[in-house]
Amino acid sequence: MTKHTKGEWVLDDRFIRCNGKIIANAWFTADPEDLEDRLEGESWLDMRHRTEPQRELITKTEPNANAKLIAAAPDLLKALTSAYHALLILVDINGDVGYPELIKQCTESIKKATK
Q: By C-alpha distance, which of 89, 38, 30 is closest to 60?
């Protein structure tokens, strides 16, 4: 079905590990220096204070959330596949119960993750 690394994926600092090995790196590549443009008459210190929330977001918050999502991917795929099979059984037992779009979304998502 899929060729991803089998086992539990764990976010460890800035790496995603499985069975003690690094399988993906979660380093963020955007340059916070892009937020270093000062407004007219603004001091460097004022600019740093003004842009702190944006720098925090692009250097810590967002990359950490992305890494957690990536680390959860195998579990999410397994849960989606199970739910998809349960939905197909429900449709088989009860006939078309109005879930063709959901079945299509499941099929496309599983295919996207495994092909």
A: 30
In 3-state terms, what secondary structure has residue 37?
coil
* Upper half-sphere CA count for residue 15 (Cβ side, 13 Å): 7
Diameter over CA atoms, the chain: 71
Query: What is the C-alpha to C-alpha distance for residues 25 and 17, in angstroms, rounded to an integer?
Result: 9
Query: Could you tell me the residue ranges of all domains in the chain?
Result: 29-114
Residue with tokens 């999410």: 76
Q: For 98, which DSSP code?
A: S
Q: Of the given ranges (21-30, 73-82, 85-94), which has the lowest mean pLDDT? A: 21-30
Instruction: Tell me which residue has tokens 């929330």.
Output: 53
